[in-house]
Write a structure and sequence with these properties.
By secondary structure, this protein is α+β, with helices and mostly antiparallel strands. The chain has 3 domains: 2-108 and 163-183, no CATH class; 206-374, no CATH class; 386-558, no CATH class. 42% of the residues lie in helices and 10% in strands. The strands form 4 sheets. It has a 6-stranded mixed β-sheet. It has a 3-stranded antiparallel β-sheet with strand order 7-6-8. The chain has a 3-stranded mixed β-sheet with strand order 13-12-14.
Amino acid sequence: MGVGQSELIGQVKKLLDGSLMIPSIQRDYVWSRAQIPRLLDSLYKGYPVGSLLIWETNIDVPLKEASVVRTEHTQAKAGILLDGQQRLTSLAWVYKPDSVPVGKSKIDVRFDIRTETFHNPSATQKRDPFMVRVADVLTEGAQYASILEGVGVAQSDPEYQTYYERLSRLHGIRNYPMPIQTYASDDYEEVAEIFARVNTGGRRLSKGDLAMSAIAARWDEGLDRIKTLEESLAQIDFPIDREAILRLLALHAGVGADSIRLLKPEMTSDHLKTAWEATEHSLLLAVDFVKSAAGIPKSGLLTSPNVMLIPAYLLHERGQKLEQGEQEQMVRWLLTAMAFSHYSNQVESKLEAEAKAVRELSPGDLWPELIRRASGPRSADSSISPVDLVDKTHRSPLFNLLYIAALRRGAKDWWNNLTLSGVPVGRGHKIEFHHVFPQALTKGRYPDSLRNSMANLAFLSGLGNKKVGAKDPKEYLAGVDGQELRNQWVPLDPSLWDVERFEEFLEARRRLMAADLNEMLGLPPYQEAPAPSQPLEDVDFDPTELDEGSAPVTDEEDLWAD
């Protein structure tokens, strides 16, 4: 990594003559007009404005023109600007107003020589002679005396020298010592890691971004094809994270699950197109499988989008044909991977190992191996115990599995007796989680860990949740059909609905929940034992499909905002 300094105007000129280019991964110019005067003010005062990061490489990198009209053309090998596009483009537009592309309004920042402030001028300010065009001052060989003469300030004016020095200081922005970091590398994966860590305008760049730039450069219709699929998936409530889609594309392209490998030279347009055909086809097969066989109506209920990839890959490899009993095994694997947060780490290495197993193992050996892997450190046949659920909240992956279980059995809303919808349309039908014992009743009597326990949460529509509100469960549960209570693991003994027996209620409900989870995951029923051989640990995730409702709360940790 080379670190140095360069006069700012020199870097602006490089952007204008093509000596600095923008990688196609970068977003376009997005700064608002209000940001430009603030940048000039910082430069005028000598404040730090960050550094430029320039990549030097001999490999073929997908590039795009900067958002400037080039005033000159250089034949020199261009550096690749990884960080600093917004700042340099803004300054180029100020320095050379004619460099603003067609269709965009020209920049006309003014400097008030009386107050030393920068402005995007109003119509009135434009008529104020003391509001000097910054572009006039930044030109090479700017004549301050001529500028002041235009303002109407004579040399005899007592403020003449002050204004003259301010103009000179503004012109000095050209010589601002800009810190520059230069990185030379021909290693795509290494540079991808740099991209992933560079923060440009608050947006982290990822490996997937770099892969997308390669696809755009090598396959003309590639991005359009990917965006069309994304739009189609969104229309059926099954959007899939682009990073996951690109991992699947890499698997089908035969380069593993790391999307950065799509940048390899052998990934030609034809190769990418063939791999994409397989990706699109297999992913749609996986969506059908997840919705119909697994009973998961929308992707928001998945604890990771990566759980879609192995079913997609397998269905494509098998030509859509499974052997008898394999669908049930694949459902078990999917739910197991969700329950135990299988893809919370080492995603790419896990996917590569599992794709290899799909290619090489017989069905009889494949599913025990995949389920073993998805179970993590636990034995693949180790039951979930009620104790495992003690500290679990709505952020546990198991909570999503319980919601899927409730949908599968056609659970109804406790207020209007309508079946809960996995894909609600009306606002009042959106599913929320409801505190069975409302917080208004339990707050101050029991710790947060119990009040917000998964065992105290049920699923209601938004409207039903509002109607039930903070009612005492002794009152409202008595009016709910017994089957609907069973559908949501509520113990039927009315004495347990008393707030004085809240902890006993939670214990009884955890037993019912654990029994259903074991059945969903194909695990044996839990048998009482002195202690579990391996406590259940999962990775919290941020659920987006359910909202907290029930009683009003005041402490922030109780809130669930999507």
